[in-house]
Structure formats: structure tokens, C-alpha cells
Structure of Tryptophan--tRNA ligase:
Amino acid sequence: TQTIFSGIQPSGSLTIGNYLGAMKQFPELQDDYDSYFCIVDYHAITVPQDRLKLRERTRSLAALYLACGIDPEKSTLFIQSEVPAHAELSWMLQCVASIGELERMTQFKDKSEGKESVTAGLLTYPPLMAADILLYGTDLVPVGDDQKQHLELTRNLAERFNNRYNNIFNIPDIRIQEVGARVMSLQNPTKKMSKSDDNHKATIFMLDELKQIEKKIKSAVTDSEGIIEYDEENKPGITNLLNIYASFAEKPVEDIVTENQGKGYGDFKQDLAELVQGELEAIQNRYYDLYESDELDDILDHGREKADRVASKMLNKAKKAMGIGRVH
Ligand code: ATP
Ligand code: MG
């Protein structure tokens, strides 16, 4: 069987962008793949985090993975920092990557834009992501569209390592959803929705109160035309809502456009709100039970053991290939 790996940062409360672009597809994948789902807390500290909030979000994210249907009998769910091989291989891959190629990453440019000072970790984020993926011999990485460039870099680093040292890494492929791969901000639909966006009106969080979800959708930026049409260029607001609708309804976006022909924006937004509320309510109910449970800790302990076993083997191969430490 093939292996998949995907990580989400505990850098904020999860958004429907994270859900539609990544998490929603995980449960169906775990039946067919050897699956690793990771809470990537070392990635989160590339920007400043409050320590208590970070800890709480890490646990919250674990509960949310499970509430969305990750089955610990089928998948390995674990916390990145609890498996030391990630940080170790990351260092080795930083010594394979060049500063120039890291500076070309659009996420680095976006996240450092306008800042007086950013951490070195923000620049070396992609080699850590490459380590996450390569440690498990990953074949497929299910992520949102924004991670395309990082995955391309992962492939390059793996190939460079294989050619320079020894052929140990599998070259992973990316898996991107047809709809939902790029959910945009509700307030600025030319910008991607992000859990670390300061404008909370722009973002629907998976744990938002149901009333709040309706409010945010109703105040989403559209246009003054009043015609429901799919047009990314000229009608990015309504196009984003159509994509979100199609993604929740699991239907082609053309069908959603046809079904809503002639409808006003107000009614369309109302329908969308109900659809989103319905799906998130069920997840939220499961989430609140899991968050408090001891079962959650058992699952994470178990996940760490399994991940550590697999990752340590690959790390040893990498050390051997590079000549790190003594041979044994
Ligand atoms: P941050 O702003 O802290 O980077 P984020 O919302 O981008 O947070 P990540 O933890 O970086 O979330 O990414 C987790 C997963 O969610 C990745 O697979 C990423 O591609 C996906 N993702 C993030 N934002 C979106 C979005 N707007 N649409 C679709 N997928 C997304
Ligand atoms: Mg991100």
C-alpha cells in the first residue's frame, strides 16, 4: 500500500479553508493508504505564539482531526515535536537547500511582507516540511493549492539528496482537490483564507458558533450586480461562495450555478449558511466530547510510538548516507 502524509499547524483555530482544502478528504483516504496525520507545532513557532494558546490549540487540533473522522485504528495521528527525527532531518535538509531557493517561496514572501524582522525559521520552513514528508517514505501529500510550491521544493531536495548521497528518499506527489483547494477570505476574496488572519470576519472557523457562521456568510463581500455567476476575475466574492457551496455539497460547481440561477445573493447566502452549519454542527458535537477525554492522550501516545519507529529508521539511513556520527 502507498503512504500519505499531511500536516496542519496549530497556529490558530482551524478554518473552513483547512477543512475543505485538506481535512475533509482525509477520512476517505485512510481506508486506502497507510496514513500519517500530523500536528506540526514546530512549524507554528516560525511566527510568534503564546505558549498557553499553542498548547491548547495543539490538543484542540488533535480532537478536531478525530471529530472529522480520523480513525486511530487506521491512521497514525501524532504531534511533530514528539518525534525528534523531524527536527533532526530538517537540519540536514537545510544543509542541502540553498538560501536563494528558500527566498523564492511565495509563502515566505507573503508572511514576511511589511515586517521589520522575521525569524530564520520562517525562511527554513520548507526543509522542515520536506523532512516531515520524507521520513515516512510518503507517496502522496493531500494539501491545499497554496502548498504546491513547497511540495515541488520537497521533491527537489529529495532528488538532490538522493543524487548527492544515496538513493533513500521516495519522491512524493501532491494531491489537490478539484473544488475547495483554495478557499478565499470572505472580506478580501483575492486573498486566501488563513487561520492566522487578524480579521475574524474574513474567516469561518470550524468551531464558530452556528449563529456566527450565518453572520459571517451574510456579510461576505460580493458585488452590486446581483447575478449568480462563476467568474473568478470579475466576481471573486460570489465565485468563492460558489466554490465553498460546491465543496460542502460535494457537487460540481456548475451544478450549483445552475441550481441557483435567478436567486438573489441574500437567499443564496442563507442556503449556504444552513449547509455549512449542518456539517460543522455534527463535527463540533463530536469535538467537545473528545477534547476533554483521556482517550485523546492514549491516541496521541500510540501515534507517537508508531511514527517514531518509522521515522527513526529513515533518519538513520539519512545519517549514514551523509556520514553523520559513528557507523553501527
Ligand atoms: P497559517 O495562516 O498559520 O499558515 P493556514 O490556514 O494556512 O494557517 P496551514 O496549517 O498552513 O493553515 O495549512 C494546513 C492545510 O490547510 C494545508 O494543507 C493547506 O494547504 C490547507 N489550506 C490552508 N489554507 C487554505 C485555503 N484557504 N484553502 C484551501 N486549503 C487551505
Ligand atoms: Mg499556511
Summary: Strands lie at 3-8, 34-39, 75-79, 140-142, 173-175. The mean pLDDT is 96. The chain is about 50% helix and 5% strand. The longest strand covers residues 3-8.
